Amino acid sequence: MSVANAIEVDDLRRTFTRRAPGALNRMFSRRRAAASSNDNEAGCNNGGKRPAALVAVDGITFDIRVGEIFGLLGPNGAGKTTTIKMLCTLLEPTSGTARVAGFDIVREPARVRASLGTVLSGERSLYWKLTGRENLEYFAALYDVEPSTASTRIRELLDRFELTDKANELVERYSTGMRQRLSIARALLANPPVLLLDEPTAGLDPQSARNLREVVRKLKDEGHTILLTTHYMAEADELSDRIAIIDHGKVIALDTPAVLKQHIQQMHSVEVETDREPDGILDELRSLPLVRGVECIQSGNGFETWTIRVLTEDSRQTLDTLLDLLRAGGERVLNLRVAEPTLEDVFIALTGKSLRD
For residue 103, which of 111, 192, 212, 245 is within the disulfide window of CB 3.0 to 4.6 Å? Predict the structure, then answer.
């Protein structure tokens, strides 16, 4: 492994065997098959063959340099979570290799875990019936932090993440932002060289998310290497030195945000906000010859609005067509703009979908 790389992934692959349907599922499948007079209906008859394997990660290769923030982006089901779990040694790869801080994830899992601080999205990484301080004391012992230094380290982390005043309160009383800060403090107890932050700002209010992004920047300045996943494209653009986009288990693009955006330099993003859900026009927009991607984002609380974003090589024609379609459907246009392409547009152009899909 190169000393310039904190993580090296080489032709990593993970497959899962689809489970055969249980007895109850088979019974209803037979009924559906009989009703439709189609013995070959999907899921009803596998011809006695073994269930097909699901390829979650399909031979990905990338390096993460020491001291960089590396964004790993992908739509739901792209293989991102499986990749993360393999790097954390929670899953073994089917084939291929990966090294974290020089240690092989299969042959040296304990050394990998000692070199890696993780904050995984959607997983409860704290004990809610313990106080913030008690959580850190427990995990310090679990991570073999020297007792002589643990109390000092805990005090420093509580202070750093502005949790000292709440250190003796139960975590179940913490806000989402406080729990997330405590989770990162937990990951830093043993001062690992590599951090894996899986959607660290998910569910946070704008101010808390902004504060947490500042924490991530400071961690990089201190020399930590950070693997970041996020569903917020602007956040990835702001924080990441380089970004890998993964889809259908493969890395389909890898470069700096600026270089990735240069790939669609000739395109523009047409955005129109309307007061009604556009019905049936998205497919018409996708069929236009110079359109490279379409998404519709719903927003609002009480007063719902829908923003249609179209990545196109001909902004004038696309805008005219979009406005004609909206008028024909009776939708009222609230706002419109034509902008230079963003990292979100790159993602849509490459995957055909939004990061939120």
Answer: 111
| CA-angle at 286, arms to 244 and 345, nearest 5° | 30
Whether 295 and 309 have beta carbons less than 8 Å apart is answered as: yes
Judge whether 225 and 187 are in contact, CB under 8 Å: no
**What CATH number does residue 85 fall under?**
3.40.50.300
In angstroms, what CA-CA distances link 348 with 78, 202, 286, 334, 351? 14, 21, 12, 24, 5
Residue with tokens 């993970």: 14
Domain boundary among 229, 260, 291: 260
The CA-based angle 10-16-19, given to 5 degrees, is: 175
Q: Profile the chain (357 residues) by mean pLDDT over runs of 10 residues.
A: 83 87 65 58 51 88 98 90 94 97 97 95 86 98 94 96 97 94 96 95 89 94 96 92 95 94 83 87 89 86 83 89 89 89 83 64
* CB distance 347 to 73 below 8 Å: yes
Nearest to 237 by CA among 338, 341, 337: 341
- Measured in degrees and rounded to the nearest 5, phi and psi for residue 264 equal -120, 35
For tokens 């236009």, the residue is 288
Among all chains, which residue has been given the structure tokens 């497919």? 283
Its pTM stands at 0.79
Ordered DSSP codes for 277-295: ---SHHHHHHTSTTEEEEE
Alpha helices, H only, 67-131: 80-87, 109-115
